[in-house]
Amino acid sequence: MVTRPDHELTARVRPDGYLELFSRRTGKRHRCGPRGTTMWLALQRSGWQPESAADEIALQLGVDPASIRCDIHAWLAHFREAGE
Asked: The organism sits in which domain of life (predicted)?
């Protein structure tokens, strides 16, 4: 499944390495730590495909891609719920 961010969402990686997401539609702002920043960047590079992003991160970390997939899907679910 391909997931794309809302067109009203702006994202920037702050100088401290944290990702800041802002939804103009809801007015909500989210700040993500290193794990969230890594997932966001991997999702961007993979064309917003969670499975490909998980494979990329798993390869970099030398871990099982299945565990990363679970993390990415949970992370995306959190933002879907927050956007409703």
From this structure: Bacteria
